């Protein structure tokens, strides 16, 4: 009874906006949902124009006449004839070995010369002499003073002089020339332009003499009617009801898929038929399908694969008669792992299996 009530009422977590009028005497540890009355509908018939008024057209075909016309069948053009260059052979002189100037050394030449040097200067002075025939015993009595001059003394010295320092004489050595043969253009290459005239012919063709025309005929419009269901009275909130708290969490479906695929197995379809399908048929609740993968493989591929798997469950329920607007599908890839088995972590197959799951939860009634 409580499970069925859950499926026909808003989850308490979804109606938090109505927290100001929660149950007045709640029981500790219990959960509540606020139930609402269903919308009521009525049948109406509308008349509409099923086929519009339109015109049919009868075509009077065009008539033709034959005319002659001179047409160009080959355009005028130009032909270019290449005339190659004419060469002749000439001899070209060139310097095989450049001229130079050799140098011849002219040794230095010398001469002789002399110079007289005064080796001792001229002198003069008084000299005292003792007379040899002095009759006196005192020699001083026989002293004579003489003023004597001595001439200067000279010496002539011979030496070698530089007549001309060493130098060079320039000896020119002439260049050596020879020739080589060279082919030069006597008459340059050219292109002669030759005119090729256009070609014409006469053709016969049919041209429109009288254009086609359309004669309209009016066809009357048609009407039809359609029966449709419209909202008669909007439902409203009625009362709070107690539910099992565990039913408020997402419920895991033991749904399995082919490896790396979003295709449902026969066993998975049976599980949906026995669990989720009766709930959808016995009520008007809206359900969200949530699919998850383990961490193995590329992150983007897992995200896409989980969305495809959630879509597969929705598509199967639609094929079993459930309205698509009561279903939504979300793929979470490997973003909501239930254990530590993320990228790069070594885990067993059983641990990875816990993350490969499909869940559903009731959104509203």
TrEMBL record:
- List the signal peptide residues: 1-19
Q: Which UniProt keywords apply?
A: Cell outer membrane, Membrane, Signal
Its transmembrane ranges are: none
Q: Which residues does UniProt call coiled coil?
A: none
Q: Domain OmpA-like spans what residues?
A: 244-365
Q: Which domain of life is it from?
A: Bacteria
Q: Which Pfam families match?
A: OmpA
Protein location? Cell outer membrane
- List the protein's name: OmpA-like domain-containing protein
Q: Per the UniProt entry, what species is this protein from, by scientific name?
A: Winogradskyella haliclonae
